Amino acid sequence: MAVFNTQQKVLFQHCDPAGIVFYPRYFDMVNAVVEEWFGSRLGTPFEILHGSMDAGIPTVQLEVAFHAPSRHGDLLDFQLEPLRVGTSSVDISVRVYCADELRLSMKASLVYVDKSTTRARPWPPAIRRRITSQSTKNGNSSMHKTIHPEGWKPAKGYANGVLANGPQLYVGGQIGWNKEQVFESDDFIAQMEQTLNNVVAVVEAAGGSVADIVRLTWYVTDKREYLARQKEVGESYRRIMGRHFPAMAMLVVSELVEDRALIEIEATAVLSSQV
Asked: 161-274: which CATH number, 3.30.1330.40, 2.10.70.10, 3.30.360.10, 3.90.190.20?
């Protein structure tokens, strides 16, 4: 279970004269997301794939639904999820959001080809293993299930419960300093982002990913600032966590042990990739 999340801002070059994204430009943006996924999650930057490996991954099948227009200046959240892996192919799902609004959903089939012959060839074992470990059709998606009692109003930005199975990782309280234990900012949003990055770093060091986090407990020292900056909080959260919303709780405390700390977050992760 490993959804890849990233963001792109709608630029002038993406838009038609009315300032709305011209639909072929979505495909350019999705191609950039796929390139980023290959480099950061699959360990194969495109300059190597298309260079020394003399390979390509053209799209051979595409199904797209446009749900709402995107406009110049919008910050879009891209969520890529591998669905099924074949001998030389992979089916992916891509969903594009702006805040909580779904703008586009897509399913695509990519094929690994030899550039010199343009014919399909088997995935290199290392790449196939990495894709398979993330694919929802290989049993990984069933490890974590969001629980929402029937009839309850939707939980926005969190889950009421998460059912999970696998090795558990307990992440101690992280605060907004860097790996050298130095605070780089006294701004709440900056500390929040650093704190979430620190949580994710611990999870990844154990072999997990953002998608394996099943619980977050937040401690903040200023409730009013947190509430007043909700838009920034949401944007900052999605930059680090994408659209992954585990079970959460938040407590307001008078102070934290480190005098400059404005926020502390502890986490629980269940590492589906190690089951």
From this structure: 3.30.1330.40
